[in-house]
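Subject: two folds for Thursday's group meeting

Dear M.,

Sorry for the delay on this. The cluster queue was jammed most of the week, so I only got both jobs back this morning. I'm pasting them in the order they finished. Each block is the input sequence followed by the predicted structure tokens. Could you check whether the formatting survives your parser before we put anything on slides? The first protein is the one we discussed after the seminar.
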Amino acid sequence: MASLQVLLASVEERLLAMSAGERGVFVAGVAERLMSWHEALPGDRRAPFILGLRPLLNSVWDGVLGDTTAFRAVKRSVAEYLRSEYCHNDGQDGPDDADEPAAAATLHAASAYLFGCADFAIWASQRAADAVGEQLEFLAEHEEEMPDLEVATVVELHRQLNDLALIASHARELRHSALGLAIDTSIRLRVELRGPLSKRD
């Protein structure tokens, strides 16, 4: 079994080699899986701030799949976050909602879409790997047998590598998606990419 360090390095290497358009789809998929996990939690464990980022994530999906009109909505939502109490430098004295995996990944996805920087995709990948431990802690409250943390994290990273391979098969279309794609192309990519990348299995 490949070590976690090797797998993390493989994911990072592939992300650095991809176009900004491909990376944007990858981060949206990571954020979608983390967001859907949070949305499925019991009501008392769901945070209003995190749930409130769902429209932003939906706009990111629209944008990375070729809808140029989504740019303004994503930009506006990010600006609202930057002006909010959740964006702060107060450390543990300030609200930590934006540091929760689903929130952080969604904000990384928005930044990756707006700016095209590979760092945001790499950080989202790492947040998803780190979130495995939190998910196992929750599941341990309801199930007797749980997978080993390292094994589960390896599964997550292999999932990311498989997602990257799927995205790479659409590289030709995604490379210039920021300039806009035909409506029928966007609809097809929504089926061929958003669906599979959103599954938590």
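Second protein, same layout:
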Amino acid sequence: MAKLSSTGFFVLLSMMVIGTIIYLRLWTVQGDLDLTDTRIDRIMFEQAQSEALDEAAEWRKKYDEEVENSSESMQKLLEVTQSVEKKNQRLENLETRLRELQKENHGLLRDVAKLKQQVEDQKLKCEKTGIKEV
């Protein structure tokens, strides 16, 4: 091997020291970057988690509002259905009563017609017998 002169040895030794210093400096910078990245990642994760919780709370609120609206609508529908059923029952009762009254009216009209006929018969009988109407 060739002998290195003291200047060459000094240059080689200086280069190794400078290389080691540069390596250590890069290593500490990388470590700082890793710590910074970890902090940034944690902050971003916490922010994303906070946003997700806010969004979940918003969706839960919307869901609760829709459930409440649905319950109110179902209650109103039930009330309307019951009201319609009562009105239908009343209508059926009125129709039944109307049919009864129509039958009664028809019977009364026949009775009136019979009575008119009897009155006419009595008038004719009276005319034949010579009795005047009062």
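Two things I noticed about the second structure. The mean pLDDT is 87. The CA atoms of residues 35 and 41 lie 10 Å apart.

Cheers,
T.
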